[in-house]
Amino acid sequence: MIKLTKVNKYYRQGDHRFHVLHDINLTVNQGELVAIIGESGSGKSTLINIIGFLDDDFTGTYFYAGQPIHDYTRRQFSRLRNQNVGFVFQNFKLIRDTTVAENVALPLLYAGQRRRDVRQRVSAVLDQVGLHGYGNQLPQNLSGGQQQRVSIARAIIGHPQFLIADEPTGALDTATSQEIMNLFKRLNREEGTTIIMVTHDPHVADQCERVVKIIDGRVVSDSREVVHHADK
């Protein structure tokens, strides 16, 4: 599904050029639940920006669904992103003065779908993430865990090929973090959703079937772990 080979990333600041990612080789198959771990500044966020088609300025090759996309234009990357990826962020990125249902509906409305069809899909997705009856609430009136569920609902409403979750439990307490992890694992297990999760939390990574560790822009380990299903 996703195959990066010898991917390098440089940033330029004034006269200086910084080498951020070094010869990254990474393959992610359909249906995997993968954690990418590393300290702050290790390059993990830079890596997922490339994986998620947010950054097209890199060297090396990127094959997605068997297609060589490393030479795509920015517009082609944007189309790929809109059609294939759902994003979940640490700080939720919800529109505070817009209802839960309207937040969740945004990707489909941007895609030009009819409002009647969108309403039905929003209702189904809110049920899926455990927020039945919350459609008319405002995000600011919800708990952090509930807001993250809204964010997940928005990410999956368009049936993306894969999710990128960037520190999705970073702003939550331990119990709520586990509830969110249980939801991700259920989406992966029951819906077959491919999930790439960035985290610095070993307990979160421990619940993923595969852990990729990055230090100073290099993949230093890529291992399959014994998954602890805390929701069972």
Structural write-up:
The chain has 232 residues and is of the alpha/beta class. It has a single domain (2-224), classed as Rossmann fold, CATH 3.40.50. It contains seven helices and ten strands. The two termini are 29 Å apart. Mean pLDDT is 94; it is low at 226-232.
Radius of gyration, CA atoms, in whole angstroms: 18 Å
Low-confidence stretches: 226-232
Shape: globular
Named at the architecture level, the CATH assignment is 3-Layer(aba) Sandwich
**Portion in beta strands:** 25-35%
What layout of secondary structure does this protein have?
Blueprint: E1 2-13, E2 16-28, E3 33-37, H1 44-51, E4 59-64, E5 67-68, H2 74-84, E6 85-89, H3 100-110, H4 115-128, H5 144-156, E7 162-166, H6 174-191, E8 194-199, H7 202-205, E9 210-215, E10 218-224
Parallel strand pairs: 3-8, 3-9, 6-7, 7-8
Antiparallel strand pairs: 1-2, 1-4, 4-5, 9-10
Helix pairs in contact: 3-4, 3-5, 4-5, 5-6
Give me some keywords for this one:
232 residues, alpha/beta, Rossmann fold, six-stranded mixed β-sheet, four-stranded antiparallel β-sheet, 7 helices, 34% helix, globular
Summarize the structure.
With 232 residues, the chain is α/β, with parallel strands linked by helices.
